Amino acid sequence: MLLLFFKNKKAVLGLIILIFFLFIAIFAPILAPYEPFQNRDEEGLRFPLRSRPTGEHWLGTTQNGYDIFSRLIYGTRTSLFIGLATGLLTTAIALTVGLISGYFGGVVDDIVSFFINIFLVLPTLVLVIVIATYITVEGITPIILVLAITGWAWGARVVRAQVLSVREREFIYASEVLGESAPKIIFREILPNIVPLVMATFLTSTIAAIIGEASLSFLGLGDLTVISWGTLLYWAQNSAALLFGAWWWFLPPGLFIGLLGTSLVLLNFAIDEISNPKLRKR
Amino acid sequence: MKYLIRKVAWLILAIFIALIINFILPRMMPGDPASVLIYQMGRMDQASRTAIMASFGVEAEGNIFQQFITYLGSLGRGNLGLALSHYPAKVTTVLARSIPWTIGLVGISTIISFILGTLTGIEIAWKRGNPFSSIFLGLFLFIRSFPFFWFGLLLVYFFAFRNPWFPLGGGSSAAIADRWSLEFVRSVIFHGFLPGMTIAITSLGYWLLLVRNNMFNVLAEDYITVAEAKGLSWSRIKYTYAARNALLPSITGFAMQLGFVVGGSLLTEMVFSYPGVGFMLYQAIQQRDYPLVQGIFLFITIAVLVANFLADMVVLALDPRVRRG
Q1: Rg value, chain B, Cα
Q2: Do B31 and B157 share a domain, yes or no?
């Protein structure tokens, strides 16, 4: 399995990009030349405002003289954390719902499926925006919660479908005849068979969360004191970076989002190809 | 027939649930938006105060079920309350002004993008392993990973700011008074080009991926091998045997992805100050105009549900298995 993974070009490329971002996130304080809220140098001299990229400020400065490159580095930390945390939480919800629905079947399945389908067709981003308008977002926890609560349906649907099919296999019948308890069958027998799917769900919801955070913050609905890719874009837009021609301000955060998203999609592809021999190159 | 009845029932039920969510959300949220708003707006006469309270249903009497009935009743009369940011205009009036813009922009660019994406997806799946396919696929997966609004910023920067080929924003030139003139239509297309391109290019990857995956499943079927063995022409196998069958799950998938694309499109409108529902939503958020936010949410949800329903109808028309039930 591991060998197949490293033989897969998509997997390796995706992994390299992901490690690149993880590296930035973990070593942010070392990599960033300045603190995110620093607008003077050591001698107390103010940084220039709205500076173009220079030797001191690789990506220029904001309207308050904050170093954009440092903010991008620290923002990577926040955005990646929001993405992974939301991804984990969303997957946990999706897995629970999907397992319950798929394993127990019958009336339980009908009811749960109904809710899955409802959440599936609701325009999630709009729902998130409406909820965020009502609450005051402080810190990143509310964003993670709102994104997870609205984003689990897709994962639950695919998990349910897969559980339904695994459930019909002989070894499950065997366990049932042997008198194994339901939790034991679910966790010992079914779960190991849907691991690739769970990983795919995790990757997909992580991408969705990173774009979701960026969108919310861009609208000014996040916590604007948090340094993330989204708030970076918000401040760029709000200080008319575009009309100042300050591409160095709004281009890099979006590129980072796109790159990270691509790496997760590549990993997703790779998992799909490895776990589904039909898709493997002939 | 059974399929049709099931789909209609589902549509009605889903819209009902959307209404419930729209009714419950403001009541579940901490604080009372109406009081917050009255506080924010400062001095105001008793009439506007009552109007605001009424538009939130705050003064409504009776338990939650009776309130819900009242809410449904006023909805039935087409009353969504007052749009506070456009006071004293009604939410329905404000919505009616912006809906045509959004349906035009998002509708047309999504359909173009779906057709182009599907055609490219068929080719890419067919020419699998070809370096061009891989590059194309990679490119659109990369673009798909961007937030719509950021891609919009990019286009504005390059094609409206650096090279002033297109307007920076808006829906039409304000100078044209006659809304039925050819000049006006030209101006609308001119203004809609960049936002339309943003939506079309960013969402292309979704449709492309969808049909590509379905093509792979179909191409692995035995009847494709049989068709090859029979010596049928490649184009016949590709379009009549493979693509035709790969298209059906694509249409169902289209409906599923639509919610996501619509969300992204609304943010695109905001970047371009396009006079549609998305930009209206942006303004409503800025001014904490809760009744308008709710009205827009309701409209978008119902629009997506109806689009889903239409997709199901297309499947019904195309798939004889579904038709026979």
Answers
A1: 24
A2: no
ipTM: 0.85
> B106 and B44 in one domain?
no
Residue length, chain A? 282
The residue in chain A having the minimum alpha-carbon distance to the alpha carbon of residue B33 is A134
- Token reading at A224: 């604007």
Distance from CA of B27 to the nearest CA of A (A): 10
Residue to test with chain B: of A113, A118, A120, A129, most B Cβ within 10 A: A129
Domain boundary among B53, B86, B119: B86
Residues of A in contact with B263 (CB under 8 A): 123-126, 215
Q: Which residue of A has its CA nearest to B152?
A: A254
- 3-state class percentages of chain B: helix first, strand second, coil last, to nearest 5: 80, 0, 20
How many percent of chain B have pLDDT more than 70? 90
- Contact B285/A215, CB-based, under 8 Å? no
Determine, for residues B33 and A134 on separate chains, whether the beta-carbon distance falls below 8 Å.
yes
Q: How many domains in chain B?
A: 2
One domain for residues B288 and B268? yes
CA distance B156 to chain A (A): 8
Question: Which residue of A9, A17, A18, A121 to mutate against B (max B Cβ within 10 Å)?
Answer: A121
Which residue type occupies A241?
Answer: A
Report how far residue A61's alpha carbon sits from residue A73's, in angstroms, rounded to the nearest whole number: 14
Query: ∠ CA(A133), CA(A135), CA(A139), 5° rounding?
Result: 110
**For residue range B56-75, what is the model confidence (pLDDT) as tens digits?**
655 556 677 888 888 888 88
Residues B48 and B103 reside in one and the same domain: no
Instruction: State whether B119 and B14 are in the same domain.
Output: no
B198 and B318 belong to one structural domain: yes
The full 3-state SS of A195-247, as one line of letters, equals: HHHHHHHHHHHHHHHHHHHHHHHHCCCCCCCCCCHHHHHHHHHHCCCCCCCCH
What are the pLDDT digits (tens) for A9-61? 888 999 999 999 999 999 988 888 888 877 777 777 778 877 788 877 778 88
Domain hosting residue B97, numbered range: 91-324
B105 and B77 within one domain: no
Q: Which of B147, B161, B294 shows the shortest C-beta gap to A214?
A: B147
Question: Cβ–Cβ contacts within 10 Å for residue A49, how many?
Answer: 14
Choose, out of B56, B146, B150, B301, the residue to mutate when testing the contact with A (most A CBs < 10 Å).
B150
Which chain B residues have a beta carbon less than 8 Å from that of A214? 147, 150
